[in-house]
Amino acid sequence: MAQAGTHGTGLDELLRLVRRRSPASVLAWLGGRIGADVAWVGRTGSVDAATPGFPPGVARVLPEHTAPLAGGGLAAATTHLDGREVRLEAFGGRAPRPVLVTAASAPLPRDSAVLASHAGGLLELLDRVGEADENARGYEAKSRQLRFAVLTALMSGDVTLARRMTTGDVPPLLGAERVRVHLLHCTPADRDRLTRTI
Q: Which residue has the higher pLDDT, 139 or 182?
């Protein structure tokens, strides 16, 4: 029964770290659990995060070992580098894929390897969440620029130009014979909230 409590506590701790979106903290937690040094090699091929004791000798030669996994040729591999057993596992469906690297003085027991795989899956999801957030911010910025351009065209009386800028389904507002424009003055935070609401 003590093991179940310990397992539950460990899972709660891992979920707390994942919610903070801190890959370095997740790797530190994982390294402590499996008794290995751990690194996360991102889609760019560089080490995005690693435990403090990750061997520099292994880090220097990682690109040649992670490339086949990142490119989609392999799902996982094991090799010996710098006197350690190094286990590499790729995550995600599209290349280049991120790779979780563990370096230990002895082969990882099966349950430790499974835990590393689960943690790697969570790290890959964190990567995707970060990408989605970045894409959403980019979309909102472009949307804000387009709204301003349409407003500028309407203020100058060029409804035809405003229609052209809205490619696709033209809003009914731009099909009207006459348009009256009202400006609302508010803070940027309120503006974005009101824009999403309206």
A: 139
